[in-house]
Fold these 2 entries.
Entry 1:
Amino acid sequence: MGAKPEEKKAGPPAYMVSFGDMMTLILTFFILLVSMAKTQEPGLIADGLGAYQVARDSHGLNGVLSGAEKQAIFDKSRMKFGLPTKAEELAAGEFDMTTSLELLRTKAAEGLKPHDEVPQPNLAMFDPNSFELNYDARRFLDRISTTIRPAKRQILVLEGHAADSNGMDPDRDSDLAYKRARVVRKYLIENHNFADERVEARAWLMEITGPEDVATRSVDGRLVTPNSVFE
């Protein structure tokens, strides 16, 4: 009696072979791009990996992950490269802003001249001596986020206002104004996926104080488009 023929084991589906080849080629392509870069910056690679993981975990949809969850993913990604978290990195590089009235990113501002702009006043209102976004401010930003989202080659400039000391401590007011603009910038980036490089935070340096002047406790916005776009 002849030997019983061996049963053939089922292999992977045919499409998995092509899929595996495609993913390997894509991975090789990006590794090649990184290797050809003029400078090797682990921070950029870590942030790119973090962005991929956020998109994967949220299935490409907004609102699935909170801002804190997204930040935890980015922090974990940076730790894999031996880098500090963004918050620690910014804290290590901070300078005393209260000693200077220049609180703008002048390089980006100068690059926008000449330009056209669309004002967006009172994007967020703050309590006296506070730079914390309250519930009403967050909900208003949620409703208007589509309107103020920078389009291609646009910049959203956020200008913080503060005259909480009624002119008694201008350095403190300038610092508070900048912090208010920064917290609005952070909220739009983390919760509405605004591009980091398209949102600028600055302080309005000359405040006109007055009794119950709530305009000096706000953050205004300006959608700026360089004129070169239309040339």
Entry 2:
Amino acid sequence: MKIKLISSALLLAMLNVPAAIADRTYLYQESDGTVWHTNINPRAQDGSRFTLLEIRGRAPAVVSCRETELARRAEQFGAQIERHATLNGVDANLIRALIRTESCFDNWAISGAGAQGLMQLMPATARSLGAENPFESEQNIDAGTRYLARMLQRFDHDITLALAAYNAGPGAVRKYNGVPPYAETQAYVKKVMAHYRQYAISQPTH
């Protein structure tokens, strides 16, 4: 089964309907078996082109990041996080902190820039790491953890620099010989590190 992420502009142009951004994700299937995943509701009854497979409700970010919701979501991915942390020599709590910052443990999260899934992989990065479906948690955590491990190795296991590279790219970290002077990246690193310290207290690793 082929799975693709369709852009809102393309989908709306194909179906000739107005944009309607919603806190839901939709899966449609074409006659050739291609599955499209999108957060746009086309409000169309064009069954000749698309068959609605599933609607997955998504809470707004303010709800998704509440402590009770986070705990429930984090628990369901705990075993996968631990497994890939062990395989790649990365602290599981660092992966938890990164996922919490990136997606609030929402495996269907999509950023405005097009980053996908739990660890918010850009499509090109996901493909380069062999993640054919970045919305599938196992593939996303595997690819994201391997990429984070790569950044840790590249920057001599300096967690701050590795996180900056994960957010802004390793080239930016090399260019500025440290965390780039981007407000977003600096806030990102601080946020992940704060979550990391919190997890280290609440969920110490052995």
